[in-house]
Amino acid sequence: MTERTIEKAVRDYLALRAEISRVNAEAKDRVANLKRTQHHITDYIESQRRALGVENFRTVDGTAFQQEWKRVKVQDWDTFLAWLVQSGHWHMLTKAVSKDAVLEFMAETGQMPPGLEYEHGFEIHVRKGTK
């Protein structure tokens, strides 16, 4: 059995990272192509649904049906925030904080904002060398 060295461990790690990257890129491309094909199929099903005036199609393989979706995006944060403060509809916000802003506050004040918890740790990373 070959003895592992740091040099070999770093080389092996970088080779695995490159392979993972290659496989992920290949998978991303394949999935994008598959999703494009799915989209073409759903376009066809939708056109047939409209043409026939039906709500759904039942087949031995499954059922195709229309389902409503909704999306909400902030277009003007300042306007929305002013309305939020005035109206008190705070339930419309999600509960999250900006890690960067909290770390900046901690660096400036030496204090943690109340109600938050801070954790940190270390992990090994491997960077490819220049040859």
Which key terms come to mind for this protein?
3 helices, flat, 131 residues, mainly alpha
Q: In words, what does this structure look like?
A:
The protein is mainly α. The protein has one domain (6-109). Helices cover 53% and strands 5% of the residues. It has helices at 6-52, 77-87, 99-109; strands at 56-58, 63-65. Strands 1-2 form a two-stranded antiparallel ribbon. A hairpin with a 4-residue loop joins β1 and β2 (63-65). The two termini are 29 Å apart.
Concise description?
With 131 residues, this protein is mainly α. The chain contains three helices and two strands; from the N terminus they run αββαα. The radius of gyration is 26 Å and the shape is flat.
Radius of gyration: 26 Å
The average pLDDT score comes to 92
Residue fraction in strands: under 5%
Low-confidence residue ranges = none
Biggest sheet details: 2 strands, antiparallel
The SSE string, one letter per element, is HEEHH
Number of domains: 1
| Helical content (DSSP H or I, runs of 4+) | 40-55%
What's the layout of helices and strands?
Elements: H1 6-52, E1 56-58, E2 63-65, H2 77-87, H3 99-109
Antiparallel strand pairs: 1-2
